[in-house]
């Protein structure tokens, strides 16, 4: 038990740091950023799950969860991707359920936006 707690306390700062900072995209990769919002003056929507799949495929390669700022991002290899909301936060409904198609290119940022209607 003591060893387990010691390991958890030693690794906790490492995991928190990995979540809080975004690593730059590796060579040959770009960044995909999702933006979730509600209202005319965009208000961020927290905890929306967005599934990422390569275009023409059904296998999910990643799931991004929007943060308090309504955004999440990750590095992906060059290519075409579809982003689709997989989980809508409580009290909200998705304004448009169609997936958003984006092209990720090396050294650039592709953005996919999702508008919600929240109570």
The top level CATH class name = Mainly Beta
Mean pLDDT reading: 83
Stretches with pLDDT under 50, minimum 5 residues: 1-21
What name goes with the CATH superfamily?
Immunoglobulins
Count of distinct structural domains: 1
Q: What is the straight-line distance between the termini?
A: 46 Å
Largest sheet: 5 strands, mixed
Name the beta content range: over 45%
Specify the structural class.
alpha+beta
Signal peptide: 1-18
Protein name: Prealbumin-like fold domain-containing protein
Organism: Nocardia rhizosphaerae
Keywords: Signal
Q: Your description of this structure?
A:
- The protein has one helix at 2-20, and strands at residues 29-38, 43-44, 49-54, 62-65, 71-77, 79-87, 92-94, 100-104, 109-118.
- It has 119 residues and is an alpha+beta fold.
- Mean pLDDT is 83; it is low at 1-21.
- Strands 1, 2, 5, 7 and 9 form a five-stranded mixed sheet that branches. Strands 4-3-6-8 form a four-stranded antiparallel sheet, with no helix packed on it.
- It has one domain: Immunoglobulins (Immunoglobulin-like, Sandwich).
- The chain is 16% helix and 47% strand.
